Amino acid sequence: MPLADYLARRFPYLDAAAWRREIADGRVAVNARTGGNASAVRRGDQVAWRRSQPEPEVATDWRLVHEHAEYLVVDKPAHLPCHGDGAFVRHTLVHLLRQAFGAVFLVHRLDRETSGLVVAARTKRALCALDAQFRGGGVDKSYLAVVRGAVAGDFVAGGAIGRDRASAIALRRAVVAADADGAQPAATGVAVLARAPDRSLVRCTPRTGRTHQIRVHLADAGHPVLGDKLYGRSDDEYLAFVRHVKSGGSPRWAPDGGPDRQLLHAESLRFSDPVAGGPLAFHLPMPPAMAAWAPPPGAG
Question: More exposed terminus of the chain, fewer Cβ within 10 Å: N or C?
Fold first, then answer.
């Protein structure tokens, strides 16, 4: 098939037109041939890409929380993607873990700006067992979030989540009618830990696992996560951030003096040992840089 079409399908962080420019500029090779000799690709071909600009810098201070011969639990810092996405290809958690441990497969993921607990499998046996738990609702998770405004009290957000049809951004989700096309039922428990007039610290317990679920439910309740570039800002502001990063700017974007990340932290995980059975539980307090934005415990 045409090389640009293949690359756009396999690596969608660039569209077909952008890949054609990369090919024309001699940065894509098929079997070591570039330019017009690299216009098509067939099964078995070797494709190489020489990037024209370096990847954005990321945080690399991930920390090992628990090591087993068949799986790992790690503390992922904010500003580190789990997988390749957009401008990030090798500057990712999975790449760093593979450099340290060899074959590693992430069982689930956190957004680039979200910090906290991530589970990775080192064997196919552990991957299958852990994946079944995560997909089957056998994992208990909680998150801490610093949100905009004073949250009046504990509540359960139960709105279905689907594509935000009012937004020009395909990535954006919203609470939609339960019978809307593509709607997925979702529920998140929200408990208030501390509050101030302009912000609150809450603990979120997702009862389902939808894309951006916690961020969508909090924004729909009128309390977006502080620093959230997608759900705490307009379409125009988010697209300005995307252009900023694509032009080589820092992804730690905070034009109004707010936090340079969304203040969401994966605090706890409870699941069954995928090899020996039996319960496992892990807990991580908020990183200091996030805690500095939170109201003091018990406030409000």
Answer: N
Residues 148/227, Cβ–Cβ less than 8 Å:
no
Instruction: Give the 3-state secondary structure of residue 169.
Output: coil
What does the alpha-carbon distance between residue 64 and residue 273 come to, in Å, rounded to a whole number? 17
Active-site residue set: 111
Closest CA to 267 of 211, 207, 203: 203
- pLDDT for the residue 37: 64
CA distance 143 to 23: 43
Pairing relationship of beta strands 105-106 and 115-121 according to DSSP bridges: antiparallel
pLDDT digit string (tens) for 18-33?
A: 898 889 888 899 998 8
For residue 127, give both structure tokens.
């991957």
Domain 63-291 has CATH 3.40.50.2300: no
Question: Residue 73 carries which DSSP code?
Answer: E
Give the single-character DSSP code of 283: E
Would you kindly state where each structural domain of the chain is located, as residue ranges? 3-49, 63-291
pTM for the full predicted model = 0.83
